[in-house]
Structure formats: structure tokens, C-alpha cells
Design goal:
- There is one protein chain.
- The chain is mainly β.
- The chain has a single domain, classed as Beta Barrel (Lipocalin).
- Helix content is about 0%, strand content about 65%.
- The chain is built from no helices and eight strands.
- It has strands at about 5-15, 20-25, 30-35, 40-50, 50-60, 65-70, 75-85, 85-95.
- An eight-stranded antiparallel beta barrel has the order 1-2-3-4-5-6-7-8.
- Strand 6 and strand 7 (about 75-85) form a beta hairpin.
- The chain starts with 6 loop residues before the first strand and ends in a 7-residue tail after the last strand.
């Protein structure tokens, strides 16, 4: 199965944050778009390869998060996130079922 991350969906983090994603994806698997958490905007850039997902979010308030994940049979992504500027700040996350996959 190949990830199709297009659309609006949420990434629920184990630290209690929910990141709202609004992503576009081209035929080559390049991903771009916007993310929002607690009223803060971030620009997204990344890619998908097969059932793997990697997106970096450059948050307007300073942090930069890297989200890596893998598509499960339940059509949800799950994985880990790390604050690139503060590598000790990590969480695991999972998505709602991806809208483009359903």
C-alpha cells in the first residue's frame, strides 16, 4: 500500500498535542502544506515512499518538528516526532484514518 497523505487530518501525540495537518502530495510523493496546533501555524515539507511518511514542520513560534511514520492496515499513520532544535523532546503519534485512503 502507498501512503496518500492529501487532505485534512489529525496527528494525535502522546504528549497531549493534536496537530491538524492540511497536506498536498504530488505524483512523485513530495508533500507540502500547513499544520496547526494550539493556534500556531507551521509550514510542512516532506515526502512519502511506499508506506513510509516523513514531514518536517517549521513552526512559526520557533520549533521544528520531524514526523516519521508508517501506514498500518487500519489506514492510519503512526510513528515518532522529534523537535529538531531540542532532540530530547520526542513523542509518538498516530493519525486518524487518512481521508484520501478511505
Amino acid at each position: 500500500m502507498t501512503v496518500d497523505s492529501r487532505g485534512n487530518w489529525d496527528a494525535h501525540q502522546t504528549n497531549g498535542a493534536t496537530v491538524h495537518m492540511n497536506l498536498d502530495q504530488d505524483h512523485a510523493g513530495n508533500v507540502s502544506g500547513d499544520a496547526f496546533v494550539n493556534g500556531v501555524h507551521g509550514g510542512c515539507q516532506g515526502f512519502v515512499r511506499g508506506d513510509d511518511f516523513l514531514v518536517t514542520i517549521d513552526w512559526d513560534n520557533g520549533p521544528k518538528g520531524r514526523y516519521t511514520g508508517h501506514l498500518g492496515l487500519d489506514l492510519r499513520l503512526s510513528g515518532e516526532t522529534v523537535d529538531i532544535n531540542n532532540p530530547g523532546s520526542t513523542a509518538t503519534w498516530f493519525s486518524d484514518p487518512l481521508p484520501a485512503m478511505v
